[in-house]
Amino acid sequence: MIEFSFWDILRNLLLATRWTVLLSLVAFIGGGLAGMLLLFMRIGRRRALRLFARYYVELFQGTPLLMQLFLAFFGLGLFGINVPAWLAAGVALILWTAAFLVEIWRGCVEAINKGQWEASASLGMGHIQQMRYVVLPQALRIAIPPTVGFSVQVVKGTALTSIIGFVELSKAGTVVTNATFQPFTVYGLVALIYFALCWPLSKSSQILERKLNVAHRNH
Amino acid sequence: MSLIEITEVRKSFGSNEVLKGINLDVDPGEVIAIIGKSGSGKSTLLRCVNGLENIDSGSISVAGAQLQPDELHLKALRLKVGMIFQQFNLFPHLTAGGNVMLSQTVVKKVPKPQAEAMARKMLERVGLEHKFDAYPDELSGGQQQRVAIARALAMQPIALLCDEITSALDPELVSEVLAVVRGLAKEGMTLMMVTHEMKFARDVCSRVVFMHQGRVHEIGPPAEVFADPKTPELKQFLGML
């Protein structure tokens, strides 16, 4: 039997962490872009688009991420499309992230005083111009802390992709455990690595919140 | 020909009819004060002229631009009438100068240097040229309102709507804003203002409109309206003050 040193375990986990980080980034950036698009639909003038965005959010917030991963992975397979695990994981996480970001951002847009819409309208701006120059700059500022806070959920959400066989940190933990028979050490390390990824994010969310609030009061 | 033509305008919020057939023509250079109790429809009327509220029937036109609910017509209308609000509604993320420049560059596509020159000129006109780089929350209420006036003026409207523009101000700040409005009136700007400043209405306005329960109840030159109110409602309203 091969002996695994602590360093072997840690090295393998850290190598897999790269995929967790990459998947988180893909989900967050992709979800951010999709979320922005959905946001414009959700608060736009077209009723059909508004409804689409609303039901989209309800569907993805109302079902477990795990089911979404299964559906993306196995569902498309039914149609003869062979979906690799990384693709299913990426797509499902992007769609899931988007659904949550839309709602966070919609709240921020709606927090902007009605007077801002009226004043910009009275100056002749159209809807897109009002959004682009008046409402979004103010909304984004209040959106930063909750958005960064939500990114923690995304990082932790990537752990679920281990179930469809994507080898990220959690999956690597299982693999290494099976080889070493040291579950406590391995999963302890896995948890610590997740913590090392998430803690700075939640901390920076708190700091940003304090900073932006102060900035909002005095400029 | 009248500059602002308001004809048989009706407007309801749900089952509550707030404007019950308003007719009012405003000539170029006229300064109209609209007075009346709260709930009489005076603010709603003003907001309709700028298209911030849709009207149910009747018509409103400003210098030939008709009020229609689509964005193109609204834009054309709003380029002719500026509006100033009770709560100032400055854009808090932009400096005073930025506030005055934004709509010029975005709506009229004025190049930045020209927009900035215009902004400086307009801020000077309201006595705030030294506050170009100040953010709204570094300004007093009176200063904010004057920036809002400069912002509206920078779009070179032919008429201005003022919706209780001094009501949110501390008493000692009211006069600086009114002084600016007085200056505009003197220069021949057409103004429609909802106001509670009776003394100002008396001194500056060419006509006073008294609104009561969604109708123009009494209208005339201030000397007449204030000295010799014809209806008991107006008598009571003036007596209340």
UniProtKB/TrEMBL annotation, chain A:
It is found in: Cell inner membrane; Cell membrane. GO terms for biological process: amino acid transport. InterPro entries: AA_ABC_transptr_permease_3TM, ArtM/GltK/GlnP/TcyL/YhdX-like, MetI-like, MetI-like_sf. It is a multi-pass membrane protein. The chain crosses the membrane at residues 20-43, 55-79, 85-105, 139-164, 184-202. Keywords: Cell membrane, Membrane, Transmembrane, Transmembrane helix, Transport. Residues 17-205 form the ABC transmembrane type-1 domain. Its main location: membrane. GO terms for cellular component: ATP-binding cassette (ABC) transporter complex. One of its GO terms (molecular function) is transmembrane transporter activity. PANTHER family: BLR6398 PROTEIN (PTHR30614:SF34), MEMBRANE COMPONENT OF AMINO ACID ABC TRANSPORTER (PTHR30614). NCBIfam families: HEQRo_perm_3TM. Belongs to the binding-protein-dependent transport system permease family. HisMQ subfamily. This is Amino acid ABC transporter membrane protein 2 (PAAT family). The lineage of its organism: Bacteria, Pseudomonadati, Pseudomonadota, Alphaproteobacteria, Hyphomicrobiales.
From TrEMBL, chain B:
Residues 4-238 form the ABC transporter domain. GO terms for cellular component: plasma membrane. The keyword ATP-binding applies. The keyword Nucleotide-binding applies. This is Amino acid ABC transporter ATP-binding protein (PAAT family). Gene3D superfamilies: P-loop containing nucleotide triphosphate hydrolases. InterPro entries: AAA+_ATPase, ABC_ATPase_HisP-typ, ABC_transporter-like_ATP-bd, ABC_transporter-like_CS, MetN_ABC_transporter-like, P-loop_NTPase. It is found in: Cell membrane. Its main location: membrane. It comes from Phyllobacterium leguminum. Keywords: Amino-acid transport, ATP-binding, Cell membrane, Membrane, Nucleotide-binding, Transport. Belongs to the ABC transporter superfamily. It is a peripheral membrane protein. GO terms for molecular function: ABC-type amino acid transporter activity; ATP binding; ATP hydrolysis activity.
